[in-house]
Amino acid sequence: MKKNFDIAVFHGDGIGPEIMAPTLAILDRMAKASDSYGLTFTDAPAGAAHYVETGEALPVASMDRARNADAILLSAMGLPDVRYADGTEISPQIDLRKALTLFAGVRPVRVKAGQRTPLNMPAGREIDFVLIRESTEGLFHTQGCGEMTENEARETLLITRDISEKLFKFAFGLAKQRKAAGRGPGRVTCVDKANVFRAFAFFRAMFDAEAAQHPDLQADHAYVDATALWMIQKPWDFDVMVTENMFGDILSDLGAGLMGGLGLAPSADIGLDHAVFQPCHGSAPDIAGRGLANPHAMILSAAMMLDWLGVKHDNAAMVADGTRLREAVEDVVARGTALTRDLGGTVGTARAADAVLDALFVA
């Protein structure tokens, strides 16, 4: 029986609506071609432009739509010249993370053999790992509420047992899924700075406790500075990495750099009941309305959404379509015939998205 899923859609700011439109068109076509699932898209107004118009960055009605949806698809959000009165950015995506307790920030890094990358990749090598960033606390805990005097400024790093135990359970569960799918050896690396900070020794101890529950998987540790080095020297050695919020924020951009840029960097913020899927890049208002934006990170985020919904609801067809969509984008990028400017090509948003559709339904 065909099951329908309600998707809350945040169209975003700047180039956000331009990359969301083709993504929804691709998802709609895939769903209509499926006998196993359908998708209904419900708009949820929010963002910097909405704040300018209404004085609200994330209306209660939009939050309710997100809370009641089966999944949340969110495009690039925020504008550099639009700020709250205290000078902080308009970031509804962070508000959603906190309100829905989306503790696991999932950042996949994938480079196929032959794909262009800033690295000097050995022949035949591929990169395929996932960085999991805790997304609700860490050094972001006091965001916008730090203490500041004329001579000092302080922010508080928070690591709790409640969130960390959920985070590590998620990380080992993902490693198990990847191992079963043949995408990794079943290895989880805790990235921290436990040699300096008591908070990270606490973090690592909880990781080790969860690791003991998974004798079928590998578990190890790495300091964050060494990890940054190894991500350049031997990124193919990683499988699943899990780390604190700020460390993950920095390392995820490094991971995007390995792929060639943020235009290929999808993400998800996942909790026990809800999940948001969005590209890692910003709203790029300088090219908004010109049809130049790279839609691939948005489309790859949608592929992650299909996979998550499929796993959660035991819908094999959705998992398979998530894989098909991811591989279609990867094939388009690897072929190099329909690349946007940020990847060294000349095509615009529509042509790049059409190439993905062709890979899905024509090739």
Structure notes:
Helices cover 41% and strands 18% of the residues. By secondary structure, it is an alpha/beta fold. The chain folds into two domains: 191 residues, Isopropylmalate Dehydrogenase, CATH 3.40.718.10; 163 residues, Isopropylmalate Dehydrogenase (3-Layer(aba) Sandwich). A ten-stranded mixed β-sheet has the order 2-1-3-12-11-4-5-10-8-9, with helices on both faces. Helix 6 links the parallel strand 8 and strand 9. Helix 1 packs across helix 9, helix 1 runs parallel beside helix 11 and helix 7 runs parallel beside helix 8. The longest helix is centred in the middle third of the chain and has 20 residues. The protein is globular. The model has no long low-confidence stretch (mean pLDDT 94).
Features:
single chain; 363 residues; alpha/beta; Isopropylmalate Dehydrogenase; 2 domains; ten-stranded mixed sheet; two-stranded antiparallel sheet; 11 helices; NAD binding; branched-chain amino acid biosynthesis; metal-binding; amino-acid biosynthesis; ICDH/IPMDH
Q: Can I get a quick summary?
A:
The chain has two domains: 1-100 and 273-363, Isopropylmalate Dehydrogenase; 103-265, 3-Layer(aba) Sandwich (Isopropylmalate Dehydrogenase). The protein is built from eleven helices and twelve strands.
- Termini separation: 28 Å
Side-by-side strand order of the widest sheet? 2-1-3-12-11-4-5-10-8-9
The CATH architecture designation of the largest domain is: 3-Layer(aba) Sandwich
CATH fold title of the largest domain: Isopropylmalate Dehydrogenase
